[in-house]
Amino acid sequence: MPQGLINKLMSVFNGQTAVERVAEDPVLTAELLLLFRMILADGEISEAELDTLRRICKESFGIDEADLDDVVDYLRTYGYETTIAQSLAVFRRLDHDRKQLLARNMVAIAKADRALGKQEVQLLARALKLLEIEPSEILSTPR
Description:
Elements: H1 2-14, H2 18-23, H3 26-40, H4 47-61, H5 65-79, H6 84-91, H7 96-112, H8 118-131, H9 135-140
């Protein structure tokens, strides 16, 4: 995606690490936190879900796989201080297309392990409501 490439180029020129970039961007932090919480929603972390997160991080945010462990460590620390509602409040300012992309990424993570748990469905439903996204919007248009 173009945004991932732009972020990567900016980090090269600015000399920022992926963690610094995430820490300085509340929207990116909130988005990654929500995606990370989707992985944790069913109480199990599958390799398929992590692979999907790696792909999303690279394509959408320009975060290389080599940097992902550091970013996840940062999110684990930061995540204890941030509620889902606080994270989602950041997205109310975003355009509708970006909200749809976030919702599609959440669905991709939830479906990655081929087992959709009750907690994953509940988290997704809550996120869609707070993002003001109709389920039909993310199911009708392929990613």
